[in-house]
Amino acid sequence: MIGVDIVQISRIQNAKRRFGSKFVRRFLCEREIALVRSDASLAGFWAAKEACAKALGCGIGAHLSFLDLGIFKTKQGKPFVRLSERAKLLHKIEKHLFHFQQLLRKL
Question: How many whole angstroms from its chain centre is CA 15?
Fold first, then answer.
């Protein structure tokens, strides 16, 4: 499963300017906020979470929130995603549906 997303940095800057820290806390936890170094990296977090949600097959909405997806870094600086229990369940469902579709194609 692959998810892709891009976002204009200016869009994130405008939302941050308009709503301040409330905007940032809507989609990042404290540990993620500590990793943000610029508006460009903030936009990167937004796009990464949107892409992950698309890969899970549902997008951000009623079934999945931004805070269900955590973007963190290893000691070496390599980014990784941590899924909440709700997001893990969606991943399992999506994975089973994918395998089921593959099986149907073989029939």
Answer: 18
